[in-house]
Amino acid sequence: MPKLTLIGLYFWICLAQKVVSGDDLYHEVGGDLLLTPDKSTVPDPITSILWKHGKNKVAEWDKDFGGLDIYAAFINRTTLDQTTGELRITGLKKTDSGVYYVEFNSKLLDKTYTISVIKPVPKPTITSSCNPDKTSCILTCEGDTTDAEPVTYSWKVGEGAWQVIGKQLIVSKNYTGKPTNSYKYICKMKNSVSGEVSEVFGLEPVPKPTITSSCNPDKTSCTLTCEGDTTDAEPVTYSWKVGEGAWEVIGKQLIVSKSDTGKPTNSYKYICKLKNSVSGEVSEVFGSEPVPKPTITYTCNSNKTSCILTCEGNTTGAEPVTYSWKVGEGAWEVIGKQLIVSKSDTGKSTNSYKYICKMKNSAGEGEVSEPVGEVFGSEPSEVGVGVVVGVVVTIVALIVIAITVWLVWKKIKGSDVVQPEQGVTVPLTANTKTGEDGADKAGKGQGNGAGGLPGGVTEDQKHGV
């Protein structure tokens, strides 16, 4: 029994020695491996070297039998230094993982080498999953770690230090409504051969970009810039889409030029996109046809209390187009293609009488339409006291003139019966009652005239009629 105990103890000591003396080494797929044995433990001159991978031979050299042999999967990528015993393997593969042993002069050295060939970690991204009221969220550091394990996950919150926490991080809001752990989160993946950091999570979303251009004097080359306020949204990536082509991550600026035909070599249509870890936005199309000069048409309801004004124009090849309106002396407003106006209780248009519209696209702002007014018809005007007095005076004057004209006409009409200084024929028939004949009466009449006027002057002649 004591003898068996000693044998068992010796076995465990040897095993422990092998475990303690072994090296656990991690190497990246595609990388190089260099194993350097300690030949000081071999007192005699080295006449043979054998490296094994598990039970399989890797490289073997024997001074007496001459030559160096490289075996199986290690051919063409393995070298052996016959003086030092160093083994170098290039282009490491996942299958190269395992335990390596070395024998000098047919004696196995105690030291072993445990090799793990792993992939580098990917650049992680942070995703979130929140409860319905958004008071608590679980952030996850995502990435394909197949053949890259073991991986450690660290987090950096705001301006704090890195902390090894795990793949997930739970954050919540405090009573102020703000996250208790700040708005900025970064995660990091790390293994024995590499480390990668995510983009910042919790950034401001990127704005909708606009494209501006700057060209040389003869317009043969232009620099397009994808503009937008990215304060607190960085880091931002800029992508471009030219014509019907695919999106390409190029940068904030794109240089375009004309070919010998005079047309842009990259087509007329350009779109840019801003993107960060929380959002992405695409610009309007740049390089559209210019917008036309619009005209305003309108339709009203039957009683002319409400009208729809439409900013008309052929926008084929010019879309997308924005429509702006200016009412009276007011400012321009981006409203839409149509504008609805109505009358107030006073019967006047609530939006003034003059309306103007204009179109705009990425190629620029077009001409302004002609003004349109009084869409509800002529409006009743307010009459002041002075105007009323003027109207009355005019009417009275017209009446006086009419009466005067009528009196003059009547007198002229009456003068047609007895004309001035016209001779009067009096019959000479005797008056049976007075014994005077017509001549006597005529003599009397000539002496006194009609109505006793001297010289036979009539009443009308007296007044100059």
UniProtKB/TrEMBL annotation:
Sequence ranges of Gly residues compositional bias: 444-455
Transmembrane residue ranges: 383-409
Basic and acidic residues: compositionally biased ranges: 434-443
Tagged with keyword Glycoprotein: yes
PROSITE patterns attached to this UniProt entry: IG_LIKE
Localization (cell): Membrane
Keywords, sorted A to Z: Glycoprotein, Membrane, Signal, Transmembrane, Transmembrane helix
Coiled coil: none
Signal peptide (residue range): 1-16
GO CC terms: membrane
Name by which UniProt lists this protein: Ig-like domain-containing protein
Organism of this sequence: Salmo trutta
